[in-house]
Each structure stands twice: as C-alpha cells, then as structure tokens.
C-alpha cells in the first residue's frame, strides 16, 4: 500500500488538498496532508522563531507516524515552497521515501534558501520582485500578510480555479512566517539517490517538459541528473493551483507518478571507448 504525504506552500495548509486527497483515497491510497507550523489551522502557533527546520520537523513527524509495516511506500509531494521542508524531511528519512514529487515547485539546492534561489535564478519581473520584497512587507519583522483577494486575482496564476475555490482560498489563507524562506536548506547525497517526479503547471508557468529537455540537451550541469531513468515528468495544462483547478487530474497524475509512470528525459551524456593508439 502507498501513502501520500502532501505538503502545501505558503499561506495555506492541509485543507488545500481536500479534493485531491478524496480522489487518492477512492483509489485505495493512504493520504496524509501536512499543515506546517504557523499556517492553516496551526496559524495560532506562529511566531518569530519559526524557521525551515521547524517545517522540516513537521513533515518528518508525519512520515514517522506512518507505520512502515502497514504502509512501506511513502510518496512525498512538495508543492511550491512546500518542496523545501519536503526535501529536508526526505534527507532525514530517505529510507522511507519511495518517490519525491516536485509539484510546480523550485528544485532546492544545497546551501541555498528559497530567497537565494529566487534572487539568483528567477527571471526578472513582477513575480520575482514580489517574492524578494516579502521580508520588507513582514509585520513585526516576521509575519508576511496573506494576499488580498485582489492580489490573488492579479498575481496568483489562478487559471482554471473557480470563483468558489478562489473564495475558499481567500477565506482560509493565513499569514506566513518569514523565517523559513530565508534559511538555507541542507541536502545530502541521500536525496539525490531518490526516484523523483516533476509536475509542471504549464498555463502561465515558466517551465514544461520540452523546455527542460532543451536545457538538458544544452549540457547545463545543474539539470543533467534529471535525465536519470528514475526521474519522470508530467505537464498539466492548468495554472499554479492544480489541486483547486483540476483535482481529479492531479490525483491521477500522482497515482501514475507513484507507479513510476511519466515522461523520461534523454541523456546527452555519451560514453566513448578509446584504446591504445596504433
């Protein structure tokens, strides 16, 4: 039996996965939705001391409370910022993770914070500027206000999200602690050895399978490991909130990812045999 651990990003909580979790459970999977400290229905625990280690421990505890005898395979799904505590937890418990899923998320790098990666790798534009200004907007130096309804509409990449789902997002969104975004993540080679799946939301997004294949073909060192046959990929023609816009399709994608399905990239690395000169 497979257990899915679903980790949401900033401003949200386990509630975000309601419809996806229902779809996974109807297919016979076990589902755990992680709410990170200071977010969602745990917003009352927010404080200036919350950092990335806090959120990594949140996810680690969810994994530790899944009985390995009953459910040996854990598929860990990190969405948006949620990939950072997910990768950190996978680094602590690699033996429990059968697959790590990057759901429309960055690819965390050892020694970088989320803010570091945005600053160095995100294309210039309003989205980058808004993310980098989060610390300046934080109330009391640590609490980042949740977007207003107008801000969700203007900047949330909500393609496919219904008015009812948007109203729910606006009602339940919580402020986010600033500390986790600025803390550098530490990742060992244990994470690199895990099977992975990347899911790209392509409507309004900046990456898809074709673009990634072009990067691999260019020889960019950062992405060459993604041509590993254990790495699979899916494109979803929706905006940044697939659990709200297309929950049934997302549940199907996650089930297929757990089964090892998905697109595989072609490696550009070739082996050349050489012998002694004649």
From TrEMBL:
Regions annotated as coiled coil: none
Domain AB hydrolase-1: start-end pairs: 4-253
The secretion signal range is: none
GO MF assignments: hydrolase activity
Superkingdom field: Bacteria
**What UniProt keywords apply to this chain's record, in alphabetical order?**
Hydrolase
Q: Under what name is this protein listed?
A: Alpha/beta hydrolase
């Amino acid at each position: 039996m497979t257990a899915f651990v679903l980790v949401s990003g900033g401003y949200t909580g386990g509630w975000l996965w309601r419809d996806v979790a229902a779809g996974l459970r109807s297919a016979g999977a076990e589902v755990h939705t992680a709410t990170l400290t200071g977010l969602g229905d745990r917003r009352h625990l927010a404080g200036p001391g919350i950092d990335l280690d806090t959120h990594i421990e949140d996810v680690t505890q969810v994994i530790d409370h899944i009985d390995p005898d009953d459910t040996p395979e854990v598929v860990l799904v990190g969405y948006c910022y949620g990939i950072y505590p997910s990768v950190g937890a996978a680094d602590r418990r690699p033996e429990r993770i059968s697959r790590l899923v990057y759901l429309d998320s960055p690819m965390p790098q050892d020694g970088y914070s989320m803010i570091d990666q945005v600053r160095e790798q995100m294309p210039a534009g309003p989205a980058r500027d808004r993310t980098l200004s989060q610390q300046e907007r934080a109330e009391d130096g640590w609490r980042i206000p949740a977007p207003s309804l107008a801000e969700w509409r203007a900047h949330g990449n909500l393609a496919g999200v219904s008015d009812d789902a948007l109203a729910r997002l606006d009602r339940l969104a919580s402020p986010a602690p600033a500390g986790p975004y600025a803390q550098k993540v530490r990742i060992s080679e244990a994470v690199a050895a895990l099977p992975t799946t990347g899911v790209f939301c392509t409507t309004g997004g900046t990456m898809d399978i074709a673009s990634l294949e072009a990067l691999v073909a260019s020889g960019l060192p950062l992405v060459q490991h993604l041509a590993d046959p254990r790495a699979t990929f899916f494109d979803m023609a929706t905006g940044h909130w697939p659990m709200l816009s297309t929950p049934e399709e997302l549940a199907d994608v996650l089930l297929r990812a757990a089964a090892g399905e998905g697109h595989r990239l072609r490696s550009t690395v070739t082996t050349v045999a050489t012998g002694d000169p004649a």
